[in-house]
Amino acid sequence: MDILCSxxxxxxxxxxxxxxxxxxxxxxxxxxxxxxxDYDVLxxxxxxxxxxxxxxxxxxxxxxxxxxxxxxALECLDEIRSKHQxxxxxxxxxxxxxxxxxxxxxxxxxxxxxxxxxxxxxxxYRIRQKEGKKKTVMALKSLNxxxxxxxxxxxxxxxxxxxxTASFFRPPEKLVDEYPDFTVNHTYDALQTWIEGxxx
Length: 200
Hints:
With 200 residues, this protein is α/β, with parallel strands linked by helices.
């Protein structure tokens, strides 16, 4: 039995924080796990920026409401689901992902959640499980699944390294340079060809 595990932002959806940065003009919010590999360091920085600028969950959700899946993403995901099982494993939050999941026809999503104050401010976050991406793959393998995984960033490395076979999808060049053993796909067509090759 084969199963796929995938990242979400940068693979099927645009980076939410980058779009919040564009909308608000706060350049520091452009930082992602492509820039800061330690997720806790990155999130603590984001939380301090939100507090400093009095940005609340509703402000972020207003930006999210205007976003659509990346061009070709839904078609790619539909094609994958017509042949294989896929679980999207993301470091995003339920409060962010909900409306966008509708646009992707509700794929299975494992992610985290935010802590929200009475005034709507983002006060913290709860990780579903430490090293959740890696442990998802390990759990599936313990159920005798053969796992293929793909993602685009540093926070995907645990998932990719734990999988039976893995590929980067549209990663930054420095990640490719640091981890040259992974396959790299830059288009959805190439990704689908890779999937059919490793899961055939």
